[in-house]
């Protein structure tokens, strides 16, 4: 653990101003007056980082809602092709009728007419959808679908603000990194396609709790997030590796037990009272074939041959296990213990890259983790550009396939290029995170001598188990700390 003197120095250092540390942030700040000055005193302002990020997140979310207006006004109800050509598709209004909410059916208990039989979403997401239907006013069916989307949008906006605020507060000295989430264009475009923001908000809150050293609260929130979407449970894997390297098994055990308890508290009642409806999500996930956005789709379209769903499940699982094995080796051999956010990003990205489907809203899973793992504006925006192009690509491809002989949109070859861009952008960001792990001196979060601001009990902990020549150097370098205090105007240079 760091000494009392090191801890005092670390806590006394001011927040990292992004316009002083990031060229792209500095250039972008010219729109609002330029980079912050050395002697600027932000602490006296009412516009704290949390408030600014929350307001920006609300503004961007509202812009995303405006982008859906052509569909809200008419495209959702006047044919399939128009909602794709306007790139404003959303599952929410369609599933209001298609999953029985308009008929007051109870999710998981009441059968739905058609092939789906029961709601194919995890229990907590189903509850979210049901609660939104309670607040949807009556009227014509089109009006009710519009209002259902609007009610859900209001609830999802709360989730978006929670995500941005949690990311802002996770790294105590880097609150402005929350702007990466708030200003992410793919975040605004995909926020109201589906209900993923609920799980993302719970996961972001869990990361904040772990950063504060609250293993029990972290586990409860991860359990709830997993009850809303499956991917959050993946974070327990890299956390185990980090706790193994640091010898923090007791805290990890607390987190795992809390996760299991919270997940069971939500799922067990439905599991016992409506077992067929409860397992529909898991059966659907297993039986679902190759779908949009995956490299598997490129293979089948280029070769003209189909792949059995069982074979795809097997190979996708093997690829994911191979990626996890690589993360294990990376964690235990890195010259300095990786940060939790770095490994969390890598494991979720590996799942997305190897999965048999990539819906455009899945980018929401990665955005908060990317902001914590590598808060560099240039690389973040390069990745976001790839995701925005994919967002446009999938809708233009669907427009092409649903427009009949008119062929309005993007043919299969163009859509394959959009998928390749999404894969390349995600791999690019993964490669940079891996480089930061292997060369910790290039990690911007650690540039001031910090260890793991999002690591909670792992922050500053000594390594207990490593492979090879891995070792963690002293967490705080006094000379570098003094140099940065001068740079930020904390001390005049002549006193050094």
Automatic annotation (TrEMBL):
Residues 7-20 have a biased composition (Basic and acidic residues). It is found in: Cell membrane. It is a multi-pass membrane protein. GO terms for molecular function: hexosyltransferase activity. The chain crosses the membrane at residues 48-66, 147-167, 179-210, 216-243, 255-275, 311-334, 340-359, 380-400, 415-434. Its main location: membrane. Signal peptide: none annotated. Keywords: Cell membrane, Membrane, Transferase, Transmembrane, Transmembrane helix. InterPro entries: GT87, UCP010361. Residues 1-20 are annotated as: Disordered. It comes from the Bacteria. GO terms for cellular component: plasma membrane. Belongs to the glycosyltransferase 87 family. This is DUF2029 domain-containing protein.
